[in-house]
């Protein structure tokens, strides 16, 4: 049964990391301590899978009768899928990857390979090259700089310290990241009804003491497109990387943008 097999595949993915030789956290994918001598039994894996299936059955029974409206689901890259749509909306909510050089195809590599979503190195490279440009793990073509004074100033500071960066392509990545984000903002403006709203949840980053003020840059880009910045709401404070001393200096923020026409 296709539906059940897809459900079981998702559930299998949810227990894979605890039975692997890696750990996943906010800073990426790393080998477990003493991973070379770790071992797991087949019976323990089967029991973990059985418990996940029971949890899923419980949730399906519990929530299957909740009233809900109809919806259309589009699976794809928001940079291209949105441009092909023409259905007006009152609200658009999204949270892109942050410009922190996390490659999510690497973080989820265990699940992607083990569950059959990737079958070759070329599959892996293709997926990685099609992600939003928030990392430097693969070389990508450069795009024009979006219209933002803060972004321009930030790129100048990064270029001045390029020899101190752990990767020389970080300035280009930051520029490409906001180019991609600007494409999504432009399509969001086009698809919103008058007086509609877009909500963007986004986080700052920092490289060699140069802060990437994503909120300020995003607001500047949005205003150029025609949005009104109705409100910004800080959600949490995040730790910087080890290179920045793990300091709690980066914000995760919700930006409320209005199409006030």
From TrEMBL:
**Entry GO MF terms:** methyltransferase activity
Task: List GO BP terms, alphabetically.
Answer: methylation
Protein name according to UniProt: DNA methylase N-4/N-6
Q: From the record, what ranges are coiled-coil?
A: none
> Organism source for this protein?
Salmonella enterica (Salmonella choleraesuis)
Q: Which InterPro entries match?
A: SAM-dependent_MTases_sf (IPR029063)
Which regions span the lipid bilayer?
6-24
Domain of life of the source? Bacteria
Q: Which UniProt keywords apply?
A: Membrane, Methyltransferase, Transferase, Transmembrane, Transmembrane helix
């Amino acid at each position: 049964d296709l539906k059940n097999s897809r459900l079981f595949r998702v559930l299998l993915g949810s227990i894979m990391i605890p039975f692997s030789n890696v750990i996943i956290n906010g800073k990426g994918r790393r080998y477990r301590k003493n991973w070379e001598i770790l071992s797991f039994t087949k019976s323990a894996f089967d029991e973990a899978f059985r418990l996940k299936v029971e949890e899923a059955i419980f949730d399906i029974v519990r929530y299957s009768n909740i009233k809900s409206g109809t919806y259309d689901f589009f699976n794809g890259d928001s940079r291209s899928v949105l441009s092909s749509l023409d259905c007006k909306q009152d609200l658009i909510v999204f949270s892109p990857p942050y410009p922190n050089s996390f490659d999510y195809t690497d973080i989820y590599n265990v699940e992607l390979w083990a569950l059959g979503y990737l079958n070759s190195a070329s599959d892996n490279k293709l997926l990685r090259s099609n992600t939003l440009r928030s990392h430097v793990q693969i070389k990508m073509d450069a795009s024009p700089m979006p219209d933002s004074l803060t972004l321009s100033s930030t790129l100048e500071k990064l270029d001045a310290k390029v020899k101190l960066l752990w990767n020389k392509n970080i300035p280009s990545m930051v520029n490409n990241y906001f180019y991609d984000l600007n494409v999504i903002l432009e399509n969001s403006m086009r698809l919103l009804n008058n007086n509609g709203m877009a909500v963007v949840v986004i986080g700052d980053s920092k490289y060699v003491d140069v802060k990437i003020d994503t909120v300020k840059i995003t607001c500047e880009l949005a205003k150029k497109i025609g949005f009104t910045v109705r409100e910004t709401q800080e959600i949490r404070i995040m730790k910087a990387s080890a290179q920045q001393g793990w300091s709690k200096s980066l914000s995760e923020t919700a930006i409320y943008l209005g199409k006030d026409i």
